Amino acid sequence: MSSSNGKMIRMSVLLGVMLCVALVAGPVVGADPVEGGHLMIAFYSSIQDSADLCKATAVYTKMIVANGLDTLIAKDPATGQYYPGLARSWKISPDGLSVTLVLREDVTFHDGTPFNAQAVKANFDHIANTPDCAGKEAYSKLGVGKSLAGYEVLDEYTIRITYNQTNARMVENLADPFVGAMHSPAAFERYGDDYGQKAMVGTGPFVFVEWTGDQGKVVFERNEDYNWAPEFYGHQGPAYLEGFTVQGIGDPTSRAAAIEIGDVDMAIVEPTDFIRLQDAAGLKGWLQSRKGWGDLSINLSNPILQDLRVRQAIAHAIDKEAINESPVFQELGEIKYCEFTEGIWGSDPSPKEEFGKYNLDYDPEQAMALLEEAGWKDTDGDGVREAHGVEGVEDGTKLHLLDLVRDYEKSSHEIIQGMLSEVGIKVEVRVHDFATRETLLFEGKFDIAPWPTTAQSFFAFNEEMHSESVPFYNIGFYGNPVVDALLDGALATTDPELQREYYRLVAIQVLKDLASIPTVKIRNTWILKAEVQGVKSDLMSVGFDLYDAWMGQ
Amino acid sequence: MRFGLRSFETSGKQRGLWTDAFRRYRRNKGAMLGMVLLLLIVFAAIMAPWITKYSPFKQRIRDALSPPSASHIFGTDHLGRDLFARIIYGARTSLKVGSIATGIACCIGIPLGLVSGYYSGWLDTIMMRLVDILLAFPGMLLALAIMAILGPSLSNAMFAAGVYIIPDYVRVARASTLAVREMDYVASARAIGCPSWYTIQRHIFPNVLLPLIVLASLNLASTILFVAGLSFLGMGAQPPTAEWGIMLKDGRLYLRQAWWPAVFPGLALLISLLAINMVGEGLRNALDPRGLARGR
Q: Checking DSSP bridges between strand A38-43 and strand A243-248, what pairing results, if any?
C-alpha cells in the first residue's frame, strides 16, 4: 500500500512538474505550423482609401490588400531577390526596352475566372483608363503617358510590355502590388466604380470579405484553392490561418489595451507601450524598421523657404538625438542622415558614415545667425522674427510656418515646434486626417510637413524628387536639373552599382539643397501574442505578410 | 417700471432683488465654496506669469516626464514642459473658452428668443422649428461637422460650442418673454405707443434676464468641458496651446509610465467645473427660485 502510495505521489509530482514547465514555456519555438485560427490585428487604420490599388495612395492600404493579391513577379522582402510569381518566367529584351512574361496556367481569381494574358492586359487597361487612377502611384509606375510604349498579348499565357526608353525599374514595378498585383477583370465589370469599395477580387492566399471604412475593419478569409505561392515562402498550398481582420483603431491607448486584454492577437503600439509590453507574460515585441525615404518636407514654393539660409537655420535648430531620446520615441527611432532609411541604403557603410558629413549639426546659435543674415529679426521682442528687407516677402511678415501632421505625428512635431521657437520661428502644428492632409499637401497648402514615404528600393526616389513629379509626390516643389539628370540616369541603366552611385549623388545634392530635412524615422513597434508565429514584413517593411503566419496552441 | 426687480418683505422694509439674492447666496455654503474656488482659479489665470517662473511652452526634452519635485511641483510632461505652468496658463484658456462660447450663444440666442416670444405667430413657429432642428443634432456630432467645415482650431471649437448651446438661450428667453409680455406694464408701454424694439429692450429684456444669468453660469462649465472634449479629440486647441483637454490627451499616452501629466489636468478640469457648477447652482437658488433656467 505504502509503495503504491509512494508511486502515486512520485507520478503526481512528475506530472505537476511537467504541467508547470509546459505552462511556463508556452508555445514551443520552432514547432511545426498548425492550421486554423483567425488573426485579429489592431492597426492605425484598416484600408484607408480603396482596395482597388490603382486608385489608392495610402501605403497601409497597399500593405493590407497585398495579402489578398499576387504580383506578376515576386520579390522576397528579406533578400530583395526576385522570384516567379504569377509569371512563371520573364525575359528582358537585349535593348532593355521590353519585358516578356510567361504566365502560370493554373491560377484562378477568387471569383473562379481564369488568370491569363488577357487578364493582365485588362489590369493595365484599368490603370491607364480609369479616371480615378490618373496620376496615382500605379499609373506613374506603369509609365502611362511617359515611358510606357504599350503591351500586347502574344498568346493566352504570354504578354509583352514595351517601353520607349530603358526602364531599370520595370521588374521592380511588376513586383509591386500597385502595378504588378492582378485583379479579376470580371470583377472590374461587375462592380464598376464600386470596385475597391465593395469588393476586391484577386488571386492571393486570402479572399476579401468586407471593409467597413478607415476606422472600421477589413476582413479576409483563407483562399482554400491557393496553390501558387512564390518559392521563397515557407510552405505551399493554402495559408495556415483561416483568415484575418485588421481593425482600424486610431487611438494608441486603445490599441495597447486591445492587445493587453487579449482582444486582438497583434497590435501596433506606441514606443512607450512597446517598452512596457514587449516582455510581458504571453506577449512579445517586434521592432520593424521601415524601408523608405523622406522626412521633414519643405515647401519650396513659399518665398520664405526658397532662401537656403532659412532652410539651413531650420536644420541647425533641430536636435535629432534629443528627439529620439524623448518619451515619444524612447530611443526606438532611426536617426536619419540622408533621405534613405538604412533599410534602403544598407549598413555598410551606414547612412551616418556615408552622409553624416553633409548633415548640419544642431547649433541654435548658428541658426539664429543665419536667420539674421537672411533678414529675419525679432525687433518687437515677441519671440517671433519678422522680415526686414527679405526678397519677395513684405516687411514685417512674421516667420510663421504651417506644419500639417497626422495625429500620430503630432507629438514628434511638437518637439520640432519647440526647437524652432527657440530660434524665433513660430510653427503652427495642425492635425488633419489622412485624406484632408494629403489633399492640402498636394495643393501646396503647407510650409513644412512630415513626408516619410515608404518604398522597396531607391527607385521611389524618382517619383518623389524629380521635378516632373510635382505635386504627386514631390510635394515640396523641388526641382534641380542636376538631380533630374541623375534620377533619369539611374533609371536608364541596369547596372546596380551605377544605380546606387547615381542615388548616392542625388541624396548628397538633396542634403545640400535641404529640399527636405532628415530627422528621426519612426520604427513600427508591434506587440504580438506569444503564440503568433511566422508573421513576415511586407515589401516596404511597414506591415505584415500573413501567408506563412500561424497561431500556436 | 421694473416690477420684476423688486420684492417686499412683510415687515415693510424694502430690499433690492440683488440684496435678497446675495443674502440667499451667502447662506448657501456650497455656493460660497464654489465661489472661493472659482476666484482662486481666476486669480491664478490672471496672475499666471507672476505665480510661476516657467513658460508653459518651453521644452526641456531631457527632463521629460520628471515626477513632481521641488523644482517642478506638478512634474513635467512628455516634452519636458512644466506642468504647473501649463495648468495655470490652461486656466486662462478654459475661462476664455467658456466665456466666449457662452457669449456667442447669449448674443445670438437671447435676441432670437425675445423676438420669437414677443411676436409669436409664424415667426415664432419658424424659429422654434429651427431650434428643434439644432436640438435634434447630438452636440458632439454638430460640433464635429462644424469643425470639419472650418478646420480644427480653438476659436472654431469655441464657435461650435457656442452654436451648440444657442437653443438653450432661445428657449429660455422665449419662455420668459411669453410670460412677461402679458404683464400690465408691457401692455401699458404698448398702449402709450412705445415701439416694439423699445418695449423689448426696455421692459421685457431686464425682466427675463435673471434666468438667463443662471443659465449662462451653468453653461460656462458645460462649454469648458465641451471644448476640452473637442481638444481631446484633436479638433480643438492645437499644440503648443496650454489647454486641459489636449494635456489630458497627451498625458494619457504615458499614464503607465508617469501618472502626473494626465492626473493634474484632469484634476484642474474637475475642480474648475465643480466650482463653476456650485456657483451656478447657488445663483439659481438665489436668483431664479422658480427654476426657469433649465439647460438641456
A: parallel
List Cβ neighbours of A9 (8 Å cut-off, separation of 6 or more): none
Q: What is the pLDDT of residue B290?
A: 61
Which pLDDT tens digit goes with each residue over B197-228? Answer: 899 988 899 888 888 988 998 899 999 999 99
Strands (DSSP E) contained in chain B are 6-8, 14-16
A256 closest CA partner among A523, A60, A527, A38: A527
Say what angle helices B83-119 and B205-232 make with each other, to 10 degrees.
140
pLDDT for residue A519: 94
Which residues numbered 296-335 in A keep a CB inside 8 Å of some CB on B?
319, 322-323, 325-328
Q: Which residues of chain B are within 8 Å of residue A319 when distances are taken between CB atoms?
A: 61
Q: What DSSP state is assigned to residue B208?
A: H
Kindly provide the residue ranges of all beta strands, DSSP E only, lying in A386-541, ordered along the sequence.
Answer: 386-387, 400-405, 426-431, 448-450, 453-454, 516-517, 520-521, 524-529, 532-533, 536-537
Report the gap between the CA of B57 and the closest CA in chain A (Å). 7
Q: Which residues of B touch A (CB under 8 A)?
A: 57-59, 61-62, 64-65, 78-79, 151-153, 234, 238-240, 250, 252-257
pLDDT of residue B169: 94
The pLDDT value given to residue A6: 55
Specify whether the CB–CB gap between A540 and A456 falls below 8 A.
yes
Q: Residue A485's pLDDT is what?
A: 96
> What is the rounded CA–CA span in Å between residue A365 and residue A518?
20
- Tell me: pLDDT of B5 over 80: no
Angstrom distance (rounded) from CA A75 to CA A77: 6
The residue among A215, A249, A253, A420 with the most chain B CBs within 10 A of its CB, best to mutate, is A253
Map out the domains of chain B as residue ranges: 18-48+78-287
Test A429 with B238 for CB contact under 8 angstroms: yes
**Within chain A, which residues score under 50 in pLDDT?**
1-4, 18-29
Contacts of A252 in chain B (CB under 8 A): 253
Using a CB-CB cut-off of 8 Å, the residues of chain A touching B147 are: none
Phi, psi of A80 (to 5 degrees): 80, 5
Question: pLDDT value at position A5?
Answer: 53
The CATH class, in words, for B18-48+78-287 is mainly alpha
Q: In what order do the strands lie in the sheet with A426-431?
A: A426-431, A400-405, A448-450, A296-298, A516-517
The pLDDT assigned to A23 comes to 41
The ipTM estimated for the assembled molecules is 0.76
Q: What is the pLDDT of residue B244?
A: 95
Find the CATH number of the domain harbouring A416.
Answer: 3.10.105.10
Are residues A121 and A60 part of one domain? yes
CB spacing of B240 vs A428 below 8 angstroms: no
Identify whether residues A99 and A181 lie together within a single domain.
yes
Closest-CA residue of B relative to A413 is B239
Characterise A497 by phi-psi region: left (phi > 0), alpha (psi -120 to 50), beta (else): alpha
Q: What is the CATH number of the domain that holds A540?
A: 3.40.190.10
Tell me, what's the pLDDT at A12?
A: 55
Contacts of B254 in chain A (CB under 8 A): 272, 327
Is the pLDDT at B293 greater than 70, yes or no? no
Compute the mean pLDDT over every residue in chain B, rounded to the nearest whole number. 88
Residue A207 sits in the same domain as residue A321: no
**C-alpha closest to that of A469 among A457, A490, A455, A483:** A483
**What is the domain count for chain A?**
2
Under 8 Å CB pairs connecting chains A and B tally to 65
| Confidence at residue A88, expressed as pLDDT on a 0 to 100 scale | 97
Domain of residue A316 covers: 292-521
Which three cell numbers, joined as nine digits, stand for A307? Answer: 532662401
How far does A204 lie from chain B, in Å, by closest CA? 37
